[in-house]
Structures are given as C-alpha cells and as structure tokens.
C-alpha cells in the first residue's frame, strides 16, 4: 500500500519503518504512535531524500527532544569548524540539527550535514534565499523564495521553518501595539521588510498550497515559524504574538488536510509565570500540534549565562507540554557559539528536557535518576560516571580533587553521610 507522507501513512493505517523505530526507542506501542500521527499530535520528520536518517518522534507522550543550531555566517565563515560541531553535537546526543547558514557555500554545508547526520535536519530557507541571490529584500521575487524552499526539500531537509503566519492581519497588530524589541526573528524581519516595501501579502501565506505541494512531494515537515515571537519579557504574550499564533492554528489545519506534518514554533523570552499560559494557548489554538520553543528565556539580564536562563524556562515548558526545545548557548545575544559554547548549550537543554520528562511522567524517564541514586547510595563511582549526562565533565571534576579515602569525595571526606550510614547498617 503506497503513501505520500508519514501522516498520510498513519491515516491509512500503514506502519512505516520510521514509526517502528520511534516505537522501539520510546518503548510505546507503534499503534499509539500511528494514531497520534494521524491526529497531528506526533510528527516524525523524515524527508525521503535523507537516506541515513533514523526515525525520531516529536509530540504528545514522547521524550522531549532537543535541537542544535549551527551554520556559517559572513563574519564567521568556516565550514570545516561547523562540520566539527555537527559531529560533536551528534556525539552529545542531540535529536535534531538546524542549519541556519546565511552566507557563502550554504548548499555545500547543508548537503555535507545531511550526509553526516542520522538525526533530523531543519533549515530556514528565507536565510538562504537572501544569501543566494544577493538582492535587496524588496527586489526578491516569490519564485526566488520558492526555488530555495524546493532546493532544500530536494537536498533532504526534514523540517522547514517557514514564517507563513506573519500576514497582513498580523502586520496591523504590529502597527497598533508598541513593543520594546519589535521583531527579533531574522526570518520575520526579512518578510516584514518585503511586505512593507512591496505593499504585498506574505508570499508563503498567499501561496500556501504551493508550499504544501513541495512538502508532500518530498515528505517535509512544516515548522511554522513565529516571526513575531517576543524578544524580551515585556513583549511576551502580547497581541502581536497571539495574533500570529491564531493564524498558525488555521494554517495547521490546512496542512493536515493535505497530510503534511506540522510543528509550531514558539517564544522566545517569557516571564516564568507566563510559560504555562503560553503552552496552553499554543496547544489550544494549534489543535495539539507539537510545540517547539527557543528557551524560553526567563530573564533578559544574563548575557553569558543564557543557557541557564533558557534551561530554567525549558524545564518548566517541557513539564507542561512543550515537545521540542531549541538549545541556547552562553554565547546567545553575544556572538556565534564556539564548540565549548555548543556543548554547554546542549547539556543544559538536555537537562531541561529530562526534567520536563520526569514531570510529564514520560515512560522510563525517572528510571535514569533512580539508577544514579542507587549508585550514589552504594558509593559506586564507576557507575555514577557512566550514568552522568556529561561523563567527561564528571570524571574531570572527580579527578581534580581526590581524597585519601577514594570511597568518598573531598566535600565531606570522613564525614560522608552515605559511608557512615552504610557502616552502621553493615554492623547491624
């Protein structure tokens, strides 16, 4: 029995290879996976042209996934170093990579990443269109935009971020509602400039069926971008953000009608007391589609530590229903992250995702912690190192300050509570 997309297969009752892989990884009945995919509540981004891809599911009831942003820019153009980051990100167990390249031989890096990566790959074609054609934004044509979308799909990109919800109705909200940071999305700002300069509707909104046809042909998941996401706490959950979210919900239903999988992208910068409301609004307005957030960052005053502000928000967001976290590094708002920044961002985001999974009761999540606790209770340092989310750093810290009695650590030494309790229990 033939199918066009993963969602089309699910609706037809066909169990694909990717569904089986997700079911095995998540220890969930494959029929449950298939049923939620048919409803749009789970997606498996899997471009037909990404040959070495393993099935990774995002959505309701699954482990919270994380994404790593990479790519070359004009001021930091080094494809070789970015490929080193790709390999390291895979070693650190990222679930997805987004290539956000904005300059130079973008297709070369994208294709090399697709070949190297067995996890899902995302891109923002709008960035590449600007890099590719070298035109003023105003002079770019609808065909320019769509030719790059099609090229990315043919290359094997699994999910495409398209800011289709920033339409003329949303532009009215921008004009009528003041913000501190206005538009902070690169894709959103490019489209806004094009729309204002040409006095025209968003080409991806106006030609949405054309976009869906490309997604169907290559089985690309549509990641509906939030061009009006808040760039600071003051702008969070405002009229502009919610207006765009309403439109994204409408576009989600149109995509599902053609069996195109959808992810909804979200903020951004959000006060901690508004995170739950943001998740509830997205899930309601976008009909339970998987939710993908950047952070969210819970304060604006910590440049150099934004992997921490992001992990705080990400853990809470994941605990109340966010399905996919985009990592944030210590370099956020400051510069392109280096290899060390990337590692810090990945580990912080994986911690946030795991904390969220424990709260959501995701199958198997708490068992990891229980194993670590058992190893600590037994003072089994070898097992503790193996179970650590970052074994390398744990070993370095342990090795840097070794006590005379290697059964304990230099924090407590002979006063180690665990050792003393064991000693008492062994006597009795």
Keywords:
two-stranded antiparallel sheet; alpha/beta; 19 helices; globular; TIM Barrel; 9% strand; 428 residues; 8-stranded parallel barrel
Concise description?
The protein has 428 residues and is α/β, with parallel strands linked by helices.
Please explain how this structure is put together.
- Helices cover 51% and strands 9% of the residues.
- The chain is an alpha/beta fold and 428 residues long.
- The protein has two domains: 64-360, TIM Barrel, CATH 3.20.20.540; 366-427, no CATH class.
- It has an eight-stranded parallel beta barrel, surrounded by seven helices. The chain has a two-stranded antiparallel ribbon with strand order 1-2.
- The longest helix has 22 residues, at 339-360.
- It is globular.
At CATH level 3, the topology of the largest domain is TIM Barrel
Identify the CATH homologous superfamily of the largest domain.
Radical SAM ThiC family, central domain
Gap between N and C termini, in Å?
A: 67 Å
Mean pLDDT: 96
**The level-1 CATH class of the largest domain:** Alpha Beta
Q: Percentage of helical residues? A: 40-55%
Approximate shape: globular
CATH architecture heading of the largest domain? Alpha-Beta Barrel
Largest sheet geometry: 8 strands, parallel, barrel
